[in-house]
Amino acid sequence: GAVTPDDWQILLVNRWNPLPDGYTFERTKLKYGHSVDSRAYPDLQEMMDDCRAAGLDPVICSSYRTQAKQQELYENKLQRLIEEGYSYENAVTEAGTVVAVPGTSEHQTGLALDIVDASYQILDQGQEDTLVQQWLIEHSWEYGFVLRYPNAKSEITGIIYEPWHYRYVGQDIARTCMDQGLTYEEYLAARAQPGENQAPALFWQGQALDLGDRVTRLSGVTYVDAAALAAALGWTGETGEDGVLRLSDGLHKIELPVGRRALLDGMLVRLSGPTVERSGGRCLPLGDLCPLLG
Description:
- Helices cover 30% and strands 23% of the residues.
- The chain has 294 residues and is α+β, with helices and mostly antiparallel strands.
- A hairpin with a 2-residue loop joins strand 16 and strand 17 (281-285).
């Protein structure tokens, strides 16, 4: 639906959720041709001032982009991949994980910025070792910003690890994401009300399973509350004091800690995506959960 004035800072834009048609906002100009959504500007300026007051030298190297600029960046990346030997189809897939497809870039919202250390302005993983990034990772939430594309979360965000890309979401949301280690997609999934983003009904051996709001769609992936699905299949489950969810059908035992791994009868199983905490339950990608449950 249409984005209302109150929705602006929670707007989700990613490869599965393009910028709404006709989305507009007032921009505040920064130095060197940059600009941002005026509503995010005061907190951005305070963050940059405080970072500099700490003796550091942060530099904004990218901010708001027009559709035309995003198109140019995307096509350039696509062409470079083709020149490196990628087929067109593979180049399209790879390019979209590095440079967002036009219309799906957060930079087009005016709420995202690439911030680097003046002493190291290369956009690669080495950025995470700079003093500026270490300060921003620790403090950016205080000003309403989140590190939008954290490490090991590309399956959820759709973008590679970018230890320089910050998105304004407001202090309350930024604090929650920081405290709970959530991507923005995971935060939105956790706050979804029953019925929102609800996936189609699941079937097991020809019978529909009524799991209600324990099934949700997150960035194109179906996530299911592991305990709820296990219970529907006759398994027992409980979460121990160590935070590990343990499920059993009397013959097999599954252990689900927070993260990207599980234990099936004591054997380590790597998950395709991280677990997500939602409505008090531990949710896993359906593609991971079904093989575990047999």
